[in-house]
Design brief:
Elements lengths: L1 H34 L7 H9 L6 H4 L8 H15 L5 H16 L2
Helix pairs in contact: 2-5, 4-5
Bound molecules: heme C.
Amino acid sequence: MKKYKIVIFSSLIALSIVACTTGSNAQKEIKVASSSDTEKVDGKALHKESCSKCHDSSVYTKADRKIKSLDSLEKRVRGCDANIGSNLEPEELKAISTFLNNEYYKF
Ligand code: HEC
């Protein structure tokens, strides 16, 4: 009986090693799938989640707003992301810039 348990135990270990190796492959596949899926990144939701803590949307619409071009908007979004350490992916930053441009700046 004891021997039987040992056999089960060691095959469990073997199984979990296999599971770990295939697990990391599976993770890679998921990553590839999500980064090629940029259409689905929701800039509006991301903005609400990460960017509305310090300022509301009035900074984007006020008369003396600093952002004057799409290029500087993208730079500012990257800069704010770097300041707050939100570590958003490039396609997420792009989605936020696109949202801000469509909604407020309209360059
Ligand atoms: C830690 C606080 C903080 C957070 C969080 C933050 N910002 Fe800002 N942001 C600022 C400050 C301060 C300004 C300057 C406001 C001003 O000029 O009145 C600013 C200005 C901006 C401007 C320029 C507005 C203009 O036209 O003058 C943009 C665009 C912007 N932020 C985007 C973002 C985005 C996108 C995020 C999320 C990734 C974000 N911010 C998160 C602090 C923050």
